[in-house]
Amino acid sequence: MAITPDTKDWTWVLERPCPECGFDTQGFPVEAVPGMIMATAAAWQPVLEGDTRIRPEPSKWSPLEYACHVRDVFRLYDQRLELMLSQDDPLFPNWDQDETAVTDRYGEQDPAEVAAELRQAAFAIAGRFEGVTGDQWQRTGARSDGARFTVETFARYFVHDPVHHLYDVTGQRAVS
Ligand SMILES: [Zn+2]
Questions:
Q1: Each residue of 93-142: pLDDT tens digit?
Q2: From the CA of 10, how far away is ligand 1's center (Å)?
Q3: CA 36 – ligand 1 centroid, Å
Q4: Which residues contact 26 (CB under 8 A, 6 or more apart)?
Q5: Residue 133, φ and ψ in degrees, nearest 5
Q6: In angstroms, rounded to a whole number, what is the distance separating the alpha carbons of residues 121 and 70?
Q7: 23 CA to middle of ligand 1, Å?
Q8: Contact (CB, 8 A) for 18 and 166
Q9: Residues 165, 21: contact at Cβ < 8 Å?
Q10: Is 89 in contact with 140 (CB distance < 8 Å)?
Q11: Residue 126: which of 89, 85, 155 has the closest Cα?
Q12: How many C-beta atoms lie closer than 10 Å to residue 24's C-beta?
């Protein structure tokens, strides 16, 4: 059985804590985001050791596939953040995460390389958030499905994603 594309809109995580992973996007100062990104990237490293290629069930990604996704989310959100900081109210190009998983053959990538790439991608976006100051947090951008973000809501929305997927893989809920 193939992975069912996840087309759910997750922007509700900006309104209330996530009942699955326990993460509260409103529970921290936005300036904490770079440190949170690096901490989450560090927590992903052990996931990429051992048996990473086995799907717990046919319709659920393997740890390796999830890690590839998280790495690509770090890269994609860094591009989107760059757009928001350099253009006025940009529209983000669309990204089909499930198509990417198939065309980039997530399940066949090298776990050690993915671990290094994930860390590097985290470092890049954490650094870009680190440079955000003052009014820049209120700059805006929009997704192709119409969801609108400020740099601040974008940061809070984004930082939930790698935490949630860590829960998908380890079953460990976020500590709040
Ligand atoms: Zn969650």
A1: 888 888 999 999 999 999 999 999 999 999 999 999 999 999 999 999 99
A2: 9
A3: 15
A4: 14, 156
A5: -135, 155
A6: 9
A7: 6
A8: no
A9: no
A10: yes
A11: 155
A12: 14
The closest of 29, 11, 52 to 170, measured between CA atoms, is 52
Q: What is the 59 CA–ligand 1 centroid distance (Å)?
A: 19
Return d(Cα 109, Cα 117) in angstroms, integer. Answer: 11
**Lookup result for tokens 């740099």:** 151
Against a cut of 0.90, is the pTM above it? yes
**142 beta partners:** 91, 148
Cα 61 to ligand 1 centroid, rounded to whole Å: 16
Distance 173 CA to ligand 1 centre (A): 8
Give the model confidence (pLDDT) of 10-43 as tens digits: 999 999 999 999 999 999 999 999 999 999 999 9
Give the Å distance between the CA of 161 and the centre of ligand 1: 7
Phi/psi for 108 (5° steps) reads -110, 5
Question: Distance of alpha carbon 147 from its chain centroid, rounded?
Answer: 16
Q: How far is CA 64 from CA 53, 67, 101, in A?
A: 6, 5, 11
Strand, coil or helix: 150: strand
Q: Is 156 exposed, middle or buried (0-12, 13-18, 19+ CB in 10 A)?
A: buried
